Amino acid sequence: KQEVTQIPAALSVPEGENLVLNCSFTDSAIYNLQWFRQDPGKGLTSLLLIQSSQREQTSGRLNASLDKSSGRSTLYIAASQPGDSATYLCAVVDTNAGKSTFGDGTTLTVKP
Amino acid sequence: DVKVTQSSRYLVKRTGEKVFLECVQDMDHENMFWYRQDPGLGLRLIYFSYDVKMKEKGDIPEGYSVSREKKERFSLILESASTNQTSMYLCASRIAGSSYNEQFFGPGTRLTVL
C-alpha cells in the first residue's frame, strides 16, 4: 500500500528565505505527483503537477522536482513571503486504479 | 479556470439525520471524488466516480453513499449521520481518460454532527 510522508510537519522561516519542502513515497509505480496549498479551513489549491516521466516543473517562485526511483519529491519556494504561509500537501496517483494518496502536509509560516 | 463548488461551507446536523453534500464542477470532468480530512489522519478517499452513474468505493465508504445522475454533479449522502462523521469534506474532479491529469478541489464543507 502506498504511503506518503512529508517532513517536517511544520516549518517557520523569516521572509525572503529560500526553502525546500520534502515529500517521499514508498511505491514508485505512480502516474504523477501533485503539490497543493491549503489555507486554514479552505480547500486545496493545485500548485504543480509532475508527470512520472518528468524531473521537474516550475511556476513562478515555485519549483518541484521528482525522483521516482528514490521515491522523493521536493518543492522549492524562492524568496518566501508572508502570503506563502499555508499547509503544503503532496499527493501521488497510483497506477493501481488511479487513486491518489496524500501526505499529511507541511505547515509553513513565513514571518515578516 | 476550473471551478468546483460545494453546496455549503458549514453544516450542522443532528445524529441520525440524513445529510446530503453536493458538489458541482463546470469543466465537463468525468472523474469526481469525495474525501474527508481529519487532523492526524490526512485526506482519505470515501468514494469516487469515473463517469455518470458509475461509482467506486474508496478507502472509507462505510456510512456513506453517493449519487452521480448528471456529469457535473456528485452527491455524498450520509444515510444516518453520526458524531464520528464530523469532519471537513472535500470534493474534487479530474479530466477523464488518463490518471495523468490534475485534480481540482472545491472549497470544502465543514460538517458538524451533534
What does this structure look like?
The complex is a heterodimer of chains A (112) and B (114). Chain A is mainly β. Chain A is 0% helix and 58% strand. Chain A has no helices and eleven strands. Chain A has strands spanning 4-5, 10-14, 19-25, 30-38, 44-51, 56-59, 62-67, 72-77, 86-94, 100-102, 106-111. In chain A, the strands form two sheets. In chain A, strands 2, 4, 5, 9, 10 and 11 form a six-stranded mixed sheet that branches. A five-stranded antiparallel sheet of chain A has the order 1-3-8-7-6, with no helix packed on it. Chain A is globular and about 45 Å long. With 114 residues, chain B is mainly β. Helices cover 0% and strands 53% of the residues of chain B. Chain B is globular.
List the helices and strands and how they pair.
The complex is a heterodimer of chains A (112) and B (114).
Chain A: E1 4-5, E2 10-14, E3 19-25, E4 30-38, E5 44-51, E6 56-59, E7 62-67, E8 72-77, E9 86-94, E10 100-102, E11 106-111
Chain B: E1 4-6, E2 10-13, E3 19-25, E4 31-38, E5 42-49, E6 56-57, E7 64-70, E8 73-78, E9 87-94, E10 104-105, E11 109-113
Parallel strand pairs in B: 2-11
Antiparallel strand pairs in B: 1-3, 3-8, 4-5, 4-9, 5-6, 7-8, 9-10, 9-11
